[in-house]
Design a protein that fits this description.
Radius of gyration: 52 Å
Oligomer: single chain
Largest sheet: 17 strands, parallel
Length: about 525
């Protein structure tokens, strides 16, 4: 059978808008005519349907229909998104987050298919609240007081006016970073606190030449700071009424002078307050002070005095456990002679000073450990205060006149006053206590005595307080003219300022006079 149809013409085609069921199509290859069902023809082309969009109409379409051309868009990585062709020739889409290694992670197992985001949990004193698109973390219970100012930069302090930064009253300024105030001094407000985190962590630096921190008639505190003012005085504090000035855990790294303190009746409490490099002078005091207490500190002096008291007076002065390196011609305490810096009946106490340097062995000027109102103890170079006095009578030829037998009489003769500390001795054989506080003194007496004539007599020696014999202090004995006897007395006697003690003797048997040829009276 021949498949050739040379010269045949196909015509008269009715119009159709779709392919009819069981239709076929013809084609020819190499001059041969063939017929193929339409369904087989479509299957052979690999086209079995139409390409349309799927999913929400508001989504981003992958298919881009441009008239008769259907384009397939590429996938592009956005912020935090990673795209790539996988090893199986698929398209991989995943998050592209990098988690910092510092602190606690927010993402948990970020390599998981569904990484978890950690929750924020409130700890003690902390609250966590979510509102809209924000999470608020706040303190609860102990909230920062409204009168505390956190200072991390200079601008957090009040603005300087005429070279001075005036701090507000009843406010604490908490420095959490080192602050340089340039040439602007600080003026303290009443009940104001200037504080750092710790004297080893936060510092305040002043480059001016005046006074770094000043206060006038204010109660105020500086604490937990290191101060630097190489060309200036660190403090100038002036009070005309009773105020309290506190320095606690403050170190002056370097200064020209430590401070000028002028008072009418104020209290100064300086604890762990040190000055490591002091160029010209230490603490200068003017006026009348209720109390000064300076404890557990280090003060090094290139010149001047740690305490320059001048003519200032104190109801209480305490220096305790101060370490100081004193250059030549500098002093630890410089003041007025004869306890003039200590108010009547009060005490200046210097405990455990540890002194080094060229002036350590001569660290006092006008002030002595023997002064009646000073007490020095535990120092490595300054002698301890030891309340004592000595009076002696030697080679005496003056007889003690006995007017009435058995009546004690003050020993006659010219005594020699020996070394005294907080006491004084006279040539009349009297020792007077001058100290500021009451003491119990040990009184020791020894006499060599005999009657000026006659036979053996009974006699006694007795302590007298303020001219009145102390009954329980009597020591008895007997002696014959030309054969003296020695009697020793020892007694504990309470003394307050101006009390005095003496030795009395008595002839029990007659009115024959007694000769005390030698005697010693000691109080300590």
């Amino acid at each position: 059978m021949s498949n050739r149809a040379n010269g045949r013409k196909k015509s008269l085609f009715p119009a159709q808008t779709s392919v009819l069921t069981n239709a076929s199509m013809d084609y020819f290859v190499n001059g041969v005519n063939y017929k193929i069902p339409y369904t087989n023809f479509v299957s052979g082309l690999g086209v079995t349907g139409t390409i349309v969009q799927e999913g929400a109409v508001s989504g981003t379409p992958v298919l881009d229909k441009q008239n008769t051309v259907n384009n397939i868009r590429n996938l592009e990585a956005g912020a935090g998104i990673y795209t790539a062709v996988s090893s199986e020739n698929g398209i991989t889409i995943k998050h592209n987050f990098t988690q910092d290694t510092t602190g606690s992670p927010v993402l948990i197992n970020p390599t998981n298919a569904s990484p978890a985001i950690a929750s924020i949990v409130a700890g003690s004193g902390i609250s966590v609240t979510a509102s809209s698109n924000a999470i608020t973390i706040a303190t609860t219970g102990v909230a920062k007081a409204s009168d505390i100012v956190i200072v991390s930069v200079l601008a957090d302090l009040p603005s300087a006016v005429a070279g001075a930064i005036t701090l507000l009253a009843n406010t604490e300024y908490q420095l959490i970073q080192d602050i340089n105030i340039a040439a602007n001094r600080i003026i303290m407000g009443d009940n104001c606190i200037l504080a750092g985190l710790d004297q080893g962590l936060t510092s305040l630096t002043y480059s001016g030449t005046s006074d770094m921190i000043t206060s006038a008639d204010k109660t105020c505190t500086v604490k937990n700071l290191t101060l630097s003012c190489a060309n200036a005085r660190a403090f100038k504090i002036t009070d005309t009424s009773a105020k309290t000035f506190n320095l606690n855990s403050v170190t002056i790294a370097t200064c020209n002078k430590i401070g000028l303190f002028t008072s009418t009746a104020s209290t100064y409490l300086l604890q762990n307050f040190s000055s490591l490099i002091t160029a010209a002078d230490g603490m200068e005091f003017v006026g009348a002070f209720d109390r000064l207490a300076h404890t557990y500190s280090t003060v090094n002096m290139t010149a001047g005095s740690v305490y320059d008291l001048g003519t200032a007076s104190f109801k209480s002065f305490l220096s305790d456990s101060i370490v100081s390196t004193l250059a030549s011609n500098s002093f630890f305490v410089k003041g007025a002679a004869s306890s003039a810096n200590i108010a009547t009946g009060q005490l200046g106490s210097v405990k455990s000073p540890f002194l080094l340097g060229g002036a350590a062995s001569a660290a006092l000027s006008n002030v002595l450990p023997t002064d009646k109102s000073w007490e020095f103890t535990g120092g490595n170079t300054i002698a301890d205060t030891r309340t004592s006095s000595l009076a002696t009578l030697q080679g005496n030829s003056a007889a003690t006149v006995i007017a009435t037998a058995g009546t004690p009489v003050l020993i006659a003769g010219v005594w020699v006053a020996g070394a005294s500390s907080q006491m004084t001795a006279t040539t009349g054989g009297r020792i007077t206590y001058n100290g500021s506080k009451g003491i119990t003194a040990t009184i020791a007496g020894q006499v060599s005595v005999e009657p000026v004539s006659g036979s053996t007599v009974n006699l006694f020696v007795q302590l007298a307080l303020n001219g009145t014999v102390v009954a329980t202090s009597k020591v008895t004995g007997s002696a014959t003219s030309g054969k003296k006897t020695s009697m020793t007395l020892s007694y504990a006697q309470a003394l307050v300022a101006t009390d005095y003690v003496e030795l009395y003797v008595s002839n029990v048997d007659s009115t024959v006079n007694l000769l005390v040829s030698s005697a010693i009276l000691r109080a300590s």
